[in-house]
Amino acid sequence: MPLETPNTGPATSAVPPTPSGFAPLRIPLFRDRWIASTISSVGTWMQDTAGTWFMTSLTTSPLLIALMQTAASLPVLILGLLAGATADIFDRRKLLIFWQAWMLGSVSILAVLTFLGYVSPWTLLALTFMLNIGSAMNNPAWQAIIPELVPRELIPDTVSLNSASNNLARAVGPALGGLMVAAFKRIDSGAGSVFLLNAASYAAVIWVLVNWKRIPLFKSTLPSERIAASIRSGLRYVRYSPELRSSLVRTFTFTFFLSAIWALLAVVASHVLHQGALGYGILNGSLGVGALVGATSLPRIRRRFSADRIIAAATLYNVVTLLILAFAHIPWLIIIALILSGFAWTSTLSTLNTSVQLAVPAWVQARALGTYLMTFQGGMALGSVLWGALAEHTSTPISLATAAAGLVITLPIVSRFHILQGPVPDHTPYQWKRPAPQPLPALESEPADDLNFAGPVRISVEYTVPAENYAEFTHAIHQLRGVRLRDGALRWGIYREATNPEHLNETFVMESWLDYLRSRERVTAADEAIRERVRALHRGPEPPRTTHQIYAKEITHPNP
């Protein structure tokens, strides 16, 4: 089945990259999205600071304070795959409007209850959790629309600009949140005002989405996958994509140990440095200042250093930051350390986010991003619980020092998982480049009208390979194995005929005929290059012979 003609709008228009890294902002659609996102992110960071500081007024427990970070991170851990699957199945614009409205409603309820004085520590945690359910379901679709707004070659700069947006908000949002809370005599009045302002910030994003006339890059002519099947196919792609797995391993390790900074910064500010809400906002904002500088500098850094070196340097510096937070109780030194830590933080995560976006084709992009966000927030949520509990049962310095030791110990292990090595694969759907649609095999009946086609389908490809090509062929065919499995095959094998070693048979099994048709749509230009290498090693008067077998179900006949 051929795909529809790709959209030739902003996502495929030629906007030459520039050394400044600001080229994506020349595209009106992306610029509007970026401005709206920045406004909303400022509100989010104000809320994060006000909410965490509000919790310190409700309880002195380091664990409950650290659980604010868990409440923000856990929904992504639980819902990341579901969010990615829905974003790959349904209209992303409508999904985004719904979840932005959900977040607006959740934070509005929290604001009203705060003003009325009905918020307990567990109420605050529950409503923070509800707010972040919306964020978890929103984020994969929000990031997956990037290729619809900018050309693929601008994705690294786009990721950096998105990081700059978030970190600009992180730089000013916490300080504004702390200042707004401090401006009121009562903490609950200040926090409630911040919550109400954050609710209004979501309206800016909804306005942009309502006015966006979306044209998808392409649509399949086949029926959409069911949600459960979509999740399975997304997990299958992750399993058989080494580049994506490497990015996820590095993401989890980095965020798990670095979550100690985010989880315990409020404890350091209030219990160690004896600062108020404004002081905590300044510390939090220091991370944002450094992150903003890192995001704007990253395009130049990326051209000078490899991704692996950027991540290693950032990891080692954050070991120093954790030790400073643990043992150096000097505010100006901590502020400088946090600024540099923010620089290292955003350099690492922008690099990892870029690696995920470039590692996958469009059909599975939201699921891959959902998995990435789930891994990111999973590290944050699990780490926050561990470091908060450790601080409560021992001390804050011991917890921070233990996180620093964990970074040092795991760095040599995770360094084997390389990031952004070699040329970027061409994930353009091969159907777009095919001179004519590939014909479907002739069938005895229409699959839609025959229940037998709902069962497994076995595809068999026969090759003739001379002995001198055998080693090269087996290497190429095992690369093709990854393509088949990523695109939906349940099982794969290559077999050599016992009586004629030059005859080889490749077989793979799809869940249904419909899944087989989907796998044909999913073939990218990079995948086709692997298939061509395999076919080039075949020798014979005709191309490799392909046959399709439908699972033969047992049919019982009634007795006469």
UniProtKB/TrEMBL annotation:
Localization terms from the record: Cell membrane
Domain of life, per lineage: Bacteria
Keyword set includes Metal-binding: no
Record's GO cellular component terms: plasma membrane
Domain Major facilitator superfamily (MFS) profile: 29-418
Segments traversing the membrane: 63-83, 95-119, 190-210, 248-272, 278-298, 368-390, 396-414
Membrane association type: Multi-pass membrane protein
Matching Pfam families: MFS_3 (PF05977)
Name this polypeptide is given: MFS transporter
Organism: Edaphobacter dinghuensis
